[in-house]
């Protein structure tokens, strides 16, 4: 079945540090890939997405590139802020399937001043 | 509306009591999904609807869980005779269309605590 693997957290960074959260996937066909973010006590927000190989999704300074050859969708940000502290979920939706989202286990990011 | 709405935000039930959660999808979205988020951030898919029809119910524990999406009403997820392990955050999501991998937009969740 489909699966998404994320790096274990928590990740603790100082403000303005560079962020990478690794994500790899296993799926039949060519899924769409997503990053969702969950701020403390809140729901899930879509951060960015990519629907085909080599697409780059970007939003709020975050970027991720759909790499078919390595089945990866790593999340990056050049300079994190305290307000970026949250749990980040990598996810996929498989084409031609029932559209349920397959989530990774989440990576907690803590940014300290 | 422009966002997925879920009510209530918090729900506390004694073991064995019934719990009913509601979800209003984004206007114009024809697909509704329910997910359960348990400890350690694990998401479990429960059920999906295409309009008022069940689309995929492979994740539903059918003996105590039921769900409906009726025309002109919020969708609902009902748990009969709740158990301690039902304590979780229940998220509803909606999306626009079938087969084209449309993005799912999530509501704020309902936090259910079973005591």
Secondary structure: elements and pairs:
The complex is a heterodimer of chains A (113) and B (115).
Chain A: E1 3-6, E2 11-14, E3 19-21, E4 23-26, E5 32-38, E6 44-50, E7 56-59, E8 62-65, E9 75-77, E10 86-93, E11 102-103, E12 107-112
Parallel strand pairs in A: 2-12
Antiparallel strand pairs in A: 1-4, 3-9, 5-6, 5-10, 7-8, 8-9, 10-11, 10-12
Chain B: E1 5-7, E2 10-13, E3 19-24, E4 31-37, E5 43-50, E6 53-56, E7 65-68, E8 75-79, E9 88-95, E10 105-106, E11 110-114
Parallel strand pairs in B: 2-11
Antiparallel strand pairs in B: 1-3, 3-8, 4-5, 4-9, 5-6, 7-8, 9-10, 9-11
Can you walk through the features of this model?
The complex is a heterodimer of chains A (113) and B (115). By secondary structure, chain A is mainly beta. Chain A contains no helices and 12 strands. In chain A, strand 7 and strand 8 form a beta hairpin. The N and C termini of chain A lie far apart (41 Å). The model of chain A has no long low-confidence stretch (mean pLDDT 93). Chain B has 115 residues and is an all-beta fold. Chain B contains no helices and 11 strands. Chain B has strands at residues 5-7, 10-13, 19-24, 31-37, 43-50, 53-56, 65-68, 75-79, 88-95, 105-106, 110-114. In chain B, the strands form 2 sheets. In chain B, strands 2, 4, 5, 6, 9, 10 and 11 form a 7-stranded mixed β-sheet that branches. In chain B, strand 4 and strand 5 form a beta hairpin. Chain B is globular. In chain B, 36% of the residues are buried. Chains A and B meet through strand 5, strand 6 and strand 10 of A and strand 4, strand 5, strand 9 and strand 10 of B.
């Amino acid at each position: 079945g489909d699966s998404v693997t994320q790096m274990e957290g928590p990740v603790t960074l100082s403000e303005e540090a560079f962020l990478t959260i690794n994500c790899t996937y296993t799926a039949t066909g060519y899924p769409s890939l997503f990053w969702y973010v969950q701020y403390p006590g809140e729901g899930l927000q879509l951060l960015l997405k990519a629907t085909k190989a080599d697409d780059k999704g970007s939003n709020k300074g975050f970027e991720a590139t759909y790499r078919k050859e390595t089945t990866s969708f790593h999340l990056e940000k050049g300079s994190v802020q305290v307000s970026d502290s949250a749990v980040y979920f990598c996810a996929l939706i498989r084409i031609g399937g029932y559209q349920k989202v397959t989530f990774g286990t989440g990576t907690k990011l803590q940014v300290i001043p | 509306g422009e966002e997925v709405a879920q009510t209530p935000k918090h729900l506390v039930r004694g073991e064995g009591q019934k719990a009913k959660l509601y979800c209003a999808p984004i206007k114009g979205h024809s697909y509704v999904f329910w997910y359960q988020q348990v400890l350690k951030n694990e998401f479990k898919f429960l059920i999906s609807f295409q309009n008022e029809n069940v689309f995929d119910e492979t994740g539903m524990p059918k003996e105590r869980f039921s769900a409906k999406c009726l025309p002109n009403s919020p969708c609902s997820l009902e748990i009969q005779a709740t158990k301690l392990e039902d304590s979780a955050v229940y998220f509803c999501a909606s999306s626009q269309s079938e087969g084209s991998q449309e993005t799912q937009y999530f509501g704020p969740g309902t936090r259910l605590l079973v005591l």
